[in-house]
Design brief:
Blueprint: E1 4-9, H1 13-24, E2 28-35, H2 40-47, E3 54-56, H3 62-67, E4 74-75, H4 76-80, E5 85-88, H5 94-104, E6 108-111, E7 122-124, E8 138-141, H6 144-160, E9 162-172, E10 188-189, H7 195-203, E11 208-216, E12 222-230, H8 236-245, E13 249-252, H9 261-270, E14 281-284, E15 289-291, E16 294-301, H10 307-318, H11 325-336
Parallel strand pairs: 1-2, 1-5, 2-3, 3-4, 5-6, 6-8, 7-8, 9-11, 13-14
Antiparallel strand pairs: 9-12, 10-11, 12-16, 14-16, 15-16
Bound molecules: nicotinamide-adenine-dinucleotide (NAD).
Length: about 350
């Protein structure tokens, strides 16, 4: 099979990481990326020697980019003609407008969590419902939190069945540099149930979910506490074994120094991961415990990079590159270097 050609529209927090992730896939080609303005990320792309060709979303914005010294390879229409699939990582709501353009060119597209679910044929998670994405034209990824905790719930569900979960998200309120969100020093509580708990029920309708979300003034990662009611009783050892075997779950120990969201971010930097990215969620081993037969544990979500693997799974599904879920996710993992070294 020849390489699947992809582009990323919206080279921001998520888009940069999607571009890097796709570029690592040996069976995919990143034809280029699209943005609308000479943002800092676009300027950094230029300073790095333009590893990816840049296309401009709007013809009348090309001059802005060129004034900033950034070479533009053409317009979005030019690149859309060349690709099989588009990864739309524009701010929420813009993807729905872009969808009309993608339709005009008869192209498949994968949207991120900020779009409404109606934007896509399938609300998608690489591990939990890969098969539903097969051959579809429009997929939408779960948000960063949902992507992360579904990995853990699906992992337990496939082994022992999960009856219900309760999820408390301590959510990062802004990405680094999001000054438009204000300088916040407040813990803001949302009404129950959080949209992430509702989203879990859309992806895994057989699991009842609810949860509380507390917005927190930190920018590196979310911490989620989970209460999962299994259908069959499970031991801590079994849960640990399942989490340890999952390529996108990293089990860490508080005793080793992994005692916070920032310890994971630091560790990713010590590993030399670009931007301090980590694709895996982390389960804090010493937080695994029980309330009756319910299993409780805490996970860390690296919000900027966690959705990259499942989005790439989305390419595999909608392009029918692999019919088998595990074959697909394994290839994504292999190319992203998600081998269990930790
Ligand atoms: P961002 O603001 O960092 O990046 C968006 C980029 O899109 C910007 O570079 C902007 O210039 C560009 N853009 C705007 N309009 C455009 C257009 N018409 N055509 C092409 N490019 C355009 O946003 P983000 O944080 O990367 O979020 C993107 C999507 O990913 C949203 O749906 C968001 O909800 C979702 N998401 C974000 C995070 C996160 O941690 N930031 C995590 C998971 C999912």
């Amino acid at each position: 099979m020849s390489k699947v050609k992809a582009t990323v529209v919206g080279y921001g927090v998520i888009g940069q990481r999607l571009a890097d992730g796709v570029a690592l896939q040996k069976d995919m080609e990143l034809v280029g990326v699209v943005d609308a303005a000479p943002t800092l990320a676009v300027r950094a792309l230029h300073e790095k020697g333009m590893p990816y060709k840049l296309y401009c979303a709007f013809p009348d914005k090309i001059a802005d980019m060129e004034r900033a010294g950034i070479p533009v390879s053409g317009t979005m229409d030019d690149i859309l003609k060349q690709v099989d699939v588009i990864l739309d990582a524009t701010p929420g709501g813009i993807g729905a407008k872009n969808k009309e353009i993608y339709k005009k060119y008869g192209k498949k597209a994968i949207f991120q969590g900020g779009e409404k679910n109606e934007v896509a044929d399938v609300f998608f998670h690489g591990y939990a419902n890969y098969e539903k994405g097969l051959g579809k034209t429009f997929l939408k990824l779960t948000s960063c939190n949902t992507t992360g905790f579904i990995r853990a719930v699906d992992c337990l569900d496939r082994a022992v069945g999960v009856e219900k979960v309760a999820v408390t998200i301590v959510r990062r309120v802004a990405d680094p540099g999001d000054t438009h969100r204000g300088l916040v020093d407040v813990l803001m509580v949302d009404p129950i149930p959080s949209h992430q708990a509702k989203d879990l029920m859309l992806i895994m309708p057989h699991v009842k979910a609810t949860g509380i979300l507390v917005h927190t003034p930190v920018s590196h990662g979310h911490i989620i506490t989970m209460v999962v009611t299994p259908k069959k009783e499970i031991t801590k050892e079994k849960a640990l074994e399942l989490f340890n075997e999952h390529p996108r779950i990293r089990v860490v120990r508080i005793a080793d120094g992994f005692n916070s969201n920032t310890s994971l971010f630091q560790y990713a930097r010590f590993l030399g991961n670009p931007r301090g990215d980590m694709y895996e969620i982390a389960v804090f081993e010493e937080t695994i415990g029980f309330s009756g037969k319910d299993i409780v544990f805490a996970i860390n979500i690296p919000q900027e990079s966690v959705t990259i693997p499942e989005t790439i799974d989305g390419i595999r599904a909608c392009m029918e590159m692999q019919k088998d879920r595990l074959e697909a996710v394994s290839l994504t993992n292999k190319y992203l270097g998600l081998t269990k070294k930790n």
